[in-house]
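Throughout this review, each integer encodes one residue's backbone shape. One record appears below.

===
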Amino acid sequence: MVHARTRRTSQMTLHVARLLSSCRLTFSVLMLFAQTCFVVANEDKLEEQVDAVVSQMETFRKRLVNQLETEKDKLKKANVNPEAKRALIRAVETEVDEFKRTGMPPDHPNLIGYAVKFGEITSKTIQQAEALRLKVIDTEVRGDSPLSKSELKSLESRLENVLAGAVSWKVNDKWGGKRTYSNGDSQTLELRIHTVEGNNFAGILAQRSQNGTTDEMNVTGKRVGLQFVMTTTAMKQGKARNLQFSGVAIGNRILAGVSGIASNGKPASGFVKLFK
């Protein structure tokens, strides 16, 4: 009787052990399945995020092309010198072709306003594309993605297209150009980049007047999306001033308005155009 009870107990224990083992196996399988589903869901979400950013930028770019085409139609109807009209229309057509090819908004004097506005409205999209690109690269490096390397490279390439034209600073970069005033006067500028941290930089801005004098000022600046801001922090040479620059940084161009206080104590003005 005792032996029979012991056998039944042993059999029950073995049955429970097998059941627990089976449960653990089932649980492990379920956990593995859940983790796989989670990774796949994340990757699907990553692809969806890239699709959304690319679609948003395409919408903005189409809108800018339509605006430039509208500007061209207005020029055709404008009552101006025929030769000047033809030159302006040709300039718009050239800018549209360049934008479609490279993603670079116009920098023609008559069209700069469109570039500044484009930089403002695409700022958030550019930031999202920058963050997503790093996320795609990190996913590829980890090597735990169900997406193939070629698929991840394709996502990265699509994001790089969104980022076409976004400036990245480098130590020892030199930007040259002019500061132009409303009366037509201008001064030569040179921006020298000394330190870089992400999209932020610090350096020296040299401003050379037509009379041969040169003012040098320490500046700090940054790019957020395509938007550009820069501020003077101290003078190295010349009379004190406090200048702010605000506009867009696109590819190898900086287009920015000037505000703040000039060296004569009056409100600063002008428009800056720099090339690298």
Observations:
- Residues 2-77 form the longest helix (76 residues).
